[in-house]
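Researcher: We're teaching a course module on how sequence relates to structure. For the next exercise, students receive a sequence and then see the predicted structure as tokens, so they can try to spot secondary structure elements on their own. Here is the exercise chain.
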Amino acid sequence: MKKERKFPKIIIIGLCLIFLYFPLLVMSVFSFNDAKSLSNFKGFSLRWYESLFNNQQLLQAIYVSVSIAILATIIATILGTITAIALSKSKRIIKTAVIQVNNLPIMNPEIVTAISLMIFFSFLKIEKGYLTMLLAHIAFCTPYVITNVYPKVQQLDENLADAAMDLGATPFYTLIKVIIPQIMPGIRAGALLSFTMSFDDFIISYFVSGNGVENISIVVYNMSKRMNPSIYALSTIVLAVIMIVLLLGTFIPYILLKKREGELNEKIS
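Model: And here is the predicted structure for the students to work with:
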């Protein structure tokens, strides 16, 4: 009976996965198509990848997307982690207020955030370009870090930091060696989510960019107005990069954890 009940669930899950990932598979396959058609595969070819890497506009967009995603992830992760730790030591009313304010950019439609940031930079008379895009990405990535790190901070034993400092550790050493290792899963999840959100963003980037500064999403949007199969190649590369980042972020910590457990078991034995 249990197997019969599980069978329809497996079918439903399988259909959902096909619906989600089959379009990505089709796009990846046709990025190697020798023709421009999306309905007829006329032979394997790397011509669109060659066209992609000969296109200076696309290469510049890749550089902008990767550099901003890395910088925004690093800065947002640091700011979000510090904020989450500070919240754990704050009064209840302050915690509630900050968390509600933090949730606002996450629940807020991106178009509203984009327009508000555009007006904000115009009000401050900051010329739109690379800097404004970076600041905007930091602004919308930081709340995701806080959301992921704060629950881990709440799970910490409050006596750990006090015990470390009683044994002579400085506050900074306690932070680096005691607190951060305990909340590292939340930091890692927030950093991965920030990188993905920044690398993939279009709406906010479109409104705060200028002076010829374009990320991949903006270039793809402009190229989609005319038939250009290089988009398929670029989208396939982006998909591969995101998958590699997610796999590394998932398996490397697991491998390191197993390695530490093995070393600990050797010391005990």
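Model: If you want an answer key for the exercise: The CA atoms of residues 257 and 263 lie 10 Å apart. DSSP finds eleven helices and no strands in the chain.
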